[in-house]
Write a structure and sequence with these properties.
The chain contains 14 helices and ten strands. The chain has helices at residues 8-12, 16-29, 33-37, 68-79, 85-88, 94-98, 138-147, 169-182, 199-206, 224-227, 234-247, 265-277, 304-317, 337-356; strands spanning 83-84, 108-111, 115-116, 126-127, 153-158, 187-191, 212-214, 252-259, 282-287, 321-325.
């Protein structure tokens, strides 16, 4: 017996003419070319396509790095096989910092290799339990490169090296001394690891000839375990900052936190108070941006207006200098005239105090 034409099998036996009539009717009801040109047609289902990437706010878009200074610094770093956190961490400000003019260009050189022994959930630097031996020529090579640059301010940072007996403190201090020996006038900042809170190791670096000792608490106290490696913690980082200032009076200390990882405003204010209590004078705030799907997600994107409010609040609380913005990172525009002038003023004050003391 034949099946009714309304069934699936019945429809399969429809005539070609019937199918053409049905198709024509559907096309007649469908969108026209004008609909597509004007954007009025409904989008095709994306069930079989990859989901659309979330668009970042306009204020997070940056221009492609260009400029003579940028190219010169990049070429010099390549020729001496030096790593920078600017590149390893995919910093969005690399063009602005490397391309600075009139001596304000800032490069953040990462020493002790490009592989860290820790695995913080926000960081894009490679990790391993034992990254390998340190390069004994690195202090001299780094100093040679920096001495050849026409810049007034340099940031030295490093990966964590928990696999080494001294966590790399002696090597990092050697890099600082070599740079200062070649270019004494250079303002030098070190974004240091925590050395597991061992004060003697912190002292090796703080006393090596720095102008600014930086160490980041990264986030508010409640979120430390979620954001940072388990070997890092809030109290330990505060103790490192306090020790650096105490062991080397006159040293400028600096710290930074990321926003948009789930923190509350009251927690940010408490972190700011805690940093001030530890003697920190320079403070930066910036937006956390997820490097890949393997890293923790962004909880919220703050607006430029919110960052400006935090900058003003930080200054009102007593910090000497606050940089706050969606793209601000710890070393963002470290060579800015105001910060350099502040560091030089502090250096002069320390020298006067030392001269006034009896021999």
């Amino acid at each position: 017996a034949c099946l009714p034409a309304g069934t699936a099998l019945g429809r399969s036996f429809s005539t070609a003419a019937g199918r053409q009539t049905s198709l024509a009717a559907e096309l007649e009801k469908g969108p026209t070319l004008d609909d597509f040109v004007q954007g009025g047609a409904a989008a095709a289902p994306r069930s079989r396509l990859r989901p659309a990437r979330e668009r970042k706010p306009e204020w997070l878009k940056v221009e492609r790095p260009t400029g003579d200074n940028y190219q010169r610094l990049r070429k010099s770093l390549r020729s001496l096989n030096l790593a920078t956190v600017c590149e390893e961490a995919r910093c969005p400000n690399i063009g602005e910092c490397w391309g600075g003019k009139e001596g304000t260009a800032t490069a953040t050189i990462m020493v002790m290799g490009d592989t860290c022994t820790r695995a913080c959930r926000f960081c894009n630097v490679k990790t391993a339990k034992a990254p390998g031996a340190l390069d004994p020529m690195e202090p001299a090579n780094t100093a040679d490169a920096i001495a050849s640059w026409d810049i007034n301010y340099v940031v030295i940072t490093s990966v964590d090296r928990d696999d080494l007996p001294d966590a790399g403190a002696a090597h990092l201090a050697s890099v600082i001394r070599e740079i200062k020996a070649r270019k004494p006038s250079l303002m030098l900042e070190c974004l240091a690891p925590d050395f597991s809170g061992v004060e003697a190791l912190v002292g090796q670096v703080a006393r090596a000839g720095l102008n600014v000792f930086a160490h980041n608490i990264e986030t508010v106290e409640r979120l430390q375990g979620r954001v940072r490696d388990r070997r890092a913690n809030y109290a330990q980082s505060l103790s490192v900052l306090e020790a650096a200032r105490r062991l080397q009076p006159g040293l400028v200390t600096k710290s930074s936190i990321m926003l948009g990882v789930g923190e509350e405003a009251a927690e940010v204010r408490q972190a700011m108070r805690d940093l001030l209590s530890a003697g920190v004078e320079i403070f930066t705030l910036g937006q956390y941006l997820r490097p890949s799907k393997k890293h923790m997600p962004v909880a919220r994107m703050l607006t430029p207006e919110e960052y400006e409010a935090w900058r003003q609040e930080g200054m009102d609380m007593g910090f000497k200098y606050v940089a706050s913005g969606p793209l601000v990172r710890s070393s963002y525009r470290a060579g800015e005239f105001f910060l350099e002038a502040f560091a030089r003023e502090r250096q002069g004050q320390a020298a006067q105090t030392a001269a006034a003391q009896p021999a």
